[in-house]
Specification:
2 domains, binds zinc ion, 36% helix, elongated, four-stranded antiparallel sheet, single chain, 9 helices, Aminopeptidase, alpha+beta, Alpha-Beta Plaits, eight-stranded mixed sheet
Length: 379
C-alpha cells in the first residue's frame, strides 16, 4: 500500500472520524458499564461487512480477521471506558478547531479512528497474513483493573505475538509498564469519650503512625534506574471532635516500572502492617486492584516494536515523541512476556478532566497512523 493511498483514504474519511467520535462520546461508558459502547461498535462494523463480531463476557467488542489457527496474532485495541461516572449522555461540542467532551481523547477518538481503519481492511477485503484481533476493550481506567484486556489475553493465550493499544495522544509512546498495587487500609479501635476515655487507642492516631512508618520505606529494589513510588491518596475517619476515633482508613498505592520494585514494596508494606499488628493494632487490608509490571518480554522484540512505532509517529507528526513508561492495558501482555506498546491517534489535552479536548484536524493524521499500523501487521 502506497503512502499516498493511505493519505487519500484518511483525507476522505477524516470528517467521518469526527462524526463517529461525536456519536461515541454521547454513549456514556464509565468503567464497568461499557456494554452500550461495545454494542454500538459491533453494529457499526457489521454495517461495513464485518462477520462474527462478538461481545465477550468482559464487554469487549472483538473482531477477528483471519485469526483462526494463527499463533502469531497482532491485537489492536482502544478502550471504551472513561473515567467519568456519568450515565447520562455528555455534551459534545465543536469550538474553533477543537472537539470538546469528557473522555474525547481518552479514549473515544482513538476508538473511532480504530474502527475507521478496520473498515478500510473490510472494504478492501484484506486478509491479514497472521491474523488480526481488533478490540474495543473495557476496564482500562481506574477501578476497571484492566478487566477487558485481561479477558482478551486469556482468550488468546499463547497465540499473541504483539499488542498495540491506541491510547493517549500521538506525540507519546508508552513502551514499558508501570505496575501498581492499591489498597484500602482500615484501622479500628474500641474508641470512647475524648475526656473520660482519654488514653484509649485512637484509630486516627494509629493510622497516622502507620502512615509515618510507611513513609520511612526507602524503595531501592530492582536494577539500576528502577523507579518505585508510593502514595497515601485519601484519609478518612473519626466520628466527632469529642470522640476517640473508632475507625480510620486510607487509600494507599505503590508503583514501579520493574517487577522487582513491586515485590520489594509488597514485602516492605506487609512488614510494616505485621509490625503494627504485633503491637496490637487492628488493621484490615483490602486489595483495590493490581496492575502487573512487564516480565520475561524478549528485549529485542520489544525494542523492535517500540522503534518501529516511534519511527511511524515521527513520519506522520511534527515535534518530539515522548517515550516513557506508563500504566495502561499493555501491562497485561507485557506481564505475560508479550511485546506491547501504546500510543494515540489524535492530539489534544486535558485527559481525565471535564475540559478534555482534541484537535479535530488531528484525526486525519491519526487515521494515517492507524492504517499504516494495520497494514504493517497484515503483511
Ligand atoms: Zn486511556
Amino acid at each position: 500500500m502506497e503512502q499516498n493511498q493511505i493519505r487519500a483514504y484518511a483525507a476522505v474519511h477524516a470528517d467521518e472520524a469526527l462524526r463517529l467520535t461525536e456519536e461515541l462520546c454521547r454513549i456514556p461508558a464509565p468503567s464497568g458499564r461499557e456494554r452500550a459502547r461495545a454494542e454500538f461498535c459491533k453494529v457499526w462494523l457489521e454495517r461495513f461487512g464485518a462477520q462474527g463480531v462478538r461481545i465477550d463476557a468482559a464487554d469487549n467488542m472483538v473482531l477477528e480477521l483471519n485469526a483462526a489457527g494463527s499463533d502469531a496474532l497482532t491485537v489492536l485495541t482502544a478502550h471504551t471506558d472513561t473515567v467519568f461516572p456519568d450515565t447520562e449522555p455528555m455534551e459534545v461540542r465543536r469550538e474553533g478547531g477543537r472537539l470538546l467532551c469528557p473522555g474525547v481523547g481518552d479514549d473515544t477518538a482513538n476508538l473511532a479512528v480504530l474502527l475507521l481503519a478496520a473498515r478500510f481492511l473490510l472494504e478492501q477485503g484484506i486478509s491479514p497474513k497472521h491474523g488480526l484481533v481488533i478490540a474495543a476493550n473495557s476496564g482500562e481506567e481506574g477501578l476497571g483493573n484492566l478487566r477487558g484486556c485481561r479477558r482478551l489475553m486469556a482468550d488468546y493465550r499463547g497465540r499473541v505475538a504483539r499488542m498495540i493499544s491506541f491510547d493517549g495522544y500521538y506525540n507519546r509512546l508508552w513502551n514499558k509498564a508501570v505496575g501498581s498495587a492499591r489498597y484500602r487500609v482500615t484501622v479500628r479501635t474500641r474508641g470512647g469519650h475524648s475526656f473520660r476515655d482519654f488514653g484509649a487507642p485512637n484509630a486516627i492516631a494509629q493510622l497516622s503512625e502507620l502512615i509515618g512508618a510507611l513513609y520511612a520505606i526507602e524503595p531501592h529494589w530492582g536494577p539500576e534506574g528502577t523507579v518505585t513510588t508510593y502514595n497515601v491518596g485519601t484519609v478518612r475517619g473519626g466520628t466527632s471532635v469529642n470522640t476517640v476515633a473508632q475507625e480510620a482508613s486510607m487509600l494507599y498505592e505503590y508503583r514501579s516500572d520493574e517487577a522487582a520494585g513491586l515485590r520489594g514494596m509488597e514485602e516492605a508494606f506487609s512488614a510494616v502492617v505485621e509490625d503494627f499488628r504485633a503491637k496490637g493494632v487492628e488493621i484490615k487490608v483490602e486489595s483495590m486492584g493490581v496492575r502487573p509490571c512487564g516480565e520475561g518480554v524478549d528485549r529485542l522484540a520489544q525494542k523492535a516494536l517500540s522503534d518501529w512505532s516511534e519511527a511511524l509517529l515521527h513520519r506522520h507528526t511534527a515535534g518530539d515523541i515522548i517515550v516513557e513508561p506508563a500504566s495502561t492495558d499493555c501491562n497485561i501482555p507485557l506481564s505475560q512476556g508479550i511485546p506491547a506498546v501504546s500510543f494515540g491517534l489524535c492530539d489534544g489535552g486535558g485527559a481525565h478532566t471535564r475540559q478534555e479536548w482534541i484537535e479535530t484536524a488531528s484525526l486525519e493524521t491519526g487515521l494515517c497512523i492507524a492504517l499504516e499500523t494495520m497494514l504493517r501487521f497484515s503483511e
